[in-house]
Amino acid sequence: MITVVGTGTGGPAGVPELDKAALVVGGRRHLDAVEVPEGAERVVLGPLAPALDTVAAYVAEERPVVVLASGDPGFFGIVRALAERFGPGLLDVRPGVSSVAAAFARAGLPWDDAVVVSAHGRDPRTAVNVCRAHPKVAVLTGPGAGPAELGAALRGERRVLVVASALGSAGESVERVTPEEAAGRDWGPAVSVVLCLDEARALGPVRTVAGPQGLRSLPGRPAGWALPEAEFTHRDSMITKFEVRALALARLGPRPGDLVWDVGAGSGSVAVECARLGAAVVAVERDADGVERVRANADAHGVGVRVVHGEAPGALDALGDDPDAVFVGGGGRELPAVVAACARRARRTVVVAMAALDRVPAARAALTDAGLACDGVLVQSSRLAPLPGDVTRLAATNPVFLLWGVRPPAHSEGVCE
């Protein structure tokens, strides 16, 4: 049997299983905090594979093993690796309070609506984009992905960082700082977790489903995606129609951890839908009244969209991080230059919607010239419309060309010509 004990932030006061343990595994600070019985082997966790091999040797001889971990070891912790190697049936898990729960408790906040993301041993870009997209995020930090790196990436965002260090110890510290303040400090190795908060939205409504997507279950909130145009404020029907939006969203593939640009946002319907699906979103709009319209639609749907007042392609230079996906709307003379600028920076895909046939060849060339594999379709639809006498006709909507360019994997060659 392998007994896994969560210590530190509210873990068990004692570890009685230690008296019978033949092997005790844990981080150095965990091992230093307990009295390992005489004769028991002690393994300090570093690289995981050698430690698991040692555990396997003891399990094969049916000798008892104790693994010490921080907080709740089943929450982004060692329980996953142990269960994958030895099976859940061999584990006796004694959880403590997770660092995330402890940090929110210190901040005086509920966290049933929070997103939790790990940057420990992972690309911090995902954590940064989750922080941009959601008002309440807990980030499990690691080397190269701590408060300073998060703060540097979130400069200018309307966020407060709550940095919780050495939780559950005599040296515990909880500090509230701006991203700029966090970026300018050396935080050392004791950081347990960082909360990233939009304080204006940190106390969301009561929900019945935990997590950020629980908002969709609230009364009055629309379900699904490709929402009807009536769900958005728009000017003179200048909005991406829901049939086109449905296909655009399928090609954009917005998801938590992604950064999406909506260039020439208009009403911001695509931006809002991408944000509802969990992506961080930047909407670029040249008209001042359009900027306010995008903000109003984002607020109405309870999502965060960063709105930039400016005209592409020039306004794109100041956007910072490269996007995973880009939606380009409109069809002015600058469209080829806008598509080319977006295609150079997009990590995954660019989707372009156009009403004018004349713009299609240049937009397609801009995608392929940037090395993207190009495809497209003409979207034509007819909607049911009532006629006098309680009968129905089909009312055609304006046709729209939808092109998309996808960046091939590094090993692939050639693009669609």
From TrEMBL:
Residues 1-182 form the Tetrapyrrole methylase domain. One of its GO terms (biological process) is cobalamin biosynthetic process. GO terms for molecular function: protein methyltransferase activity. Gene3D superfamilies: Cobalt-precorrin-4 Transmethylase, Domain 1 (3.40.1010.10), Methyltransferase, Cobalt-precorrin-4 Transmethylase, Domain 2 (3.30.950.10), Vaccinia Virus protein VP39 (3.40.50.150). It holds the Pfam family TP_methylase. The keyword Transferase applies. It comes from the Bacteria. InterPro entries: 4pyrrol_Mease (IPR000878), 4pyrrol_Methylase_sf (IPR035996), 4pyrrole_Mease_sub1 (IPR014777), 4pyrrole_Mease_sub2 (IPR014776), CbiE (IPR012818), Cbl_synth_CobL (IPR006365), Cbl_synth_MTase_CbiT (IPR014008), Cobalamin_biosynth_MTase (IPR050714). The keyword Methyltransferase applies. Residues 260-330 form the Methyltransferase domain. Keywords: Cobalamin biosynthesis, Methyltransferase, S-adenosyl-L-methionine, Transferase. CDD domains: AdoMet_MTases, Precorrin-6Y-MT. Pathway: Cofactor biosynthesis; adenosylcobalamin biosynthesis. This is Precorrin-6Y C5,15-methyltransferase.
